[in-house]
Automatic annotation (TrEMBL):
SUPFAM superfamilies: lambda repressor-like DNA-binding domains (SSF47413). This is HTH cro/C1-type domain-containing protein. CDD domains: HTH_XRE. Residues 2-52 form the HTH cro/C1-type domain. InterPro entries: Cro/C1-type_HTH, Lambda_DNA-bd_dom_sf. It comes from Pelagibacterium lentulum. It comes from the Bacteria. Pfam families: HTH_3 (PF01381). One of its GO terms (molecular function) is DNA binding.
Length: 70
């Protein structure tokens, strides 16, 4: 959802986070990754302008928004 909000592809996010495209695909399929890898990807998304919303911040629970649009 965060990647789609930015309008970037799997390869773009992989390059931004310094991980492989396969790693991004695995994350998006819900496969388990090392916590530090997930943190690295999250940081890359946040630096690109994504804000992660905690449960209860939206009607449907967890979510994402572009910074300045929440």
């Amino acid at each position: 959802m965060a990647r789609a909000a930015l309008g970037i592809g799997v390869r773009d996010l992989a390059r931004m986070a310094g991980v492989s495209s396969n790693t991004i695909s695995r994350l998006e399929r819900g496969e388990e990754l090392k916590a530090d890898t997930v943190a690295t990807i999250r940081t890359a998304l946040e630096l690109a302008g994504v804000q992660f919303l905690d449960e209860g911040a939206t009607a449907s629970g967890l979510g994402v928004a572009l910074k300045g649009e929440s």
